[in-house]
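Service request form, structural biology core

Requester: graduate student, group of Dr. S.
Request type: structure prediction, single chain
Budget code: on file
Notes: please return the result as structure tokens.

Sequence provided:
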Amino acid sequence: MWRKHLAWNEGMLFVYKESAIRYFWMKNTFIHLDIAFIDRNMIIRSIVSTSKTQDSTTVYRSACPVKYVLEVNRGWFEKNGAGVGDTATR
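Core staff response, request fulfilled:
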């Protein structure tokens, strides 16, 4: 929240103790993001692109229980050839 810029190869990683369905929204977010939902085995299970900024009504939901969520600039996954089913590394 509150970011107005995110460098191209930077992101925000959310790490949870347990896997669960995760929900994100763009309240007070000023940039478009791609959100990758990653399971406990580090497999990308779904990726969503935010459609609006500063939006507290649209909720982006993981398709299955996940342990990690990675937010990057919109288009980053496509440009880097990463997608659903790929393995993320730390």
